[in-house]
Structures are given as structure tokens and as C-alpha cells.
């Protein structure tokens, strides 16, 4: 059995793709630097603002619970219909796109829910939804007006 007398070639690393990527990145950054330089030379005065306060995020829909006995809660705090109208009107003035979801007791009279809907309308709320639960013969979900 003959012995190996010559050495195997060492594996070589092909650097061509890495060099191609490096040159492509260099060209990209050189061209990008030229565009920013050209923009600095534009004779334009951007207006100044007094306050740089962050924009307020869109508020979540307010939840109104209407109980069987006529009690009303706005975000889990008991309120009267007058207080509900006043609080929603204040919130609507701060954010015009404010929406509410009304959750009425299914065993209670609809008149209580209708009174809350009227209070919401008087407060200027346009985005109102009624929360329902899926039953055997209905599709369920949230109905939006």
C-alpha cells in the first residue's frame, strides 16, 4: 500500500463576491453623499415653529355600559345622562374623531340604550357602536352606525 507523499491543496477562499459587494456599497454611499450635498445648496428657508410637542395618539373608543336598572357607566365610572353628555362633549372637543361603544344589558329595556344614544348624539359623537354577543340565530359582532 503506497503512502501519500504529496500534500493536498489547502482550500481557498473566493473573495470576489465580497469585493463586489464592498465596491457596490462604496458607490452607493458616494452617490448618496452627492445628493445631500446638492440639497444643502438649495436656496430655501424652511419655516420655524414655536412648539415641537409630539402629536397625540388616537384615543381608544370610550366604553359605555348600560345596566338593566338604567345605571350608566362611562369607562367603569358611574355617571348620569347629563354627566355623560358633558364628559363626552369635552372629550369630543379634544379629539373630533372620538368614538364610543355602547354595551347594553340584553335583558334590560331598550329605552335605556336609546337614552344613551341620544346623549352621545347631543355630545357630538359621530362614531358609535353597539356591542352584541353571538347567539344561536344571529351573526353577532359590533354594529357600527
Q: What's the overall average pLDDT, rounded?
A: 82
| Helix vs. strand class | alpha/beta
Radius of gyration using CA atoms only: 33 Å
Distance between the termini: 92 Å
Helix content, binned percent: 25-40%
SSE arrangement, N to C: HEEEHEHEE
In terms of DSSP E residues, the strand content is: 15-25%
The side-by-side strand order for the widest beta sheet comes to: 3-2-1-4-5-6
Number of separate strands: 6
Largest sheet: 6 strands, mixed
Quickly name the level 1 CATH class of the domain at 62-144.
Answer: Alpha Beta
Shape summary: elongated
Descriptive key words:
145 residues, Nucleotidyltransferase, domain 5, 3 helices, elongated
Plain-language structure description:
The chain has 145 residues and is α/β, with parallel strands linked by helices. It has a domain at 62-144: Nucleotidyltransferase, domain 5 (2-Layer Sandwich), CATH 3.30.420. The chain contains 3 helices and 6 strands, in the order αβββαβαββ. It has helices spanning 16-40, 81-94, 110-122, and strands at 62-66, 72-74, 77-79, 99-104, 127-132, 141-144. Strands 3-2-1-4-5-6 form a 6-stranded mixed beta sheet. A hairpin with a 2-residue loop joins strand 2 and strand 3 (77-79). Helix 2 (81-94) runs parallel beside helix 3 (110-122). The relative contact order is 0.11.
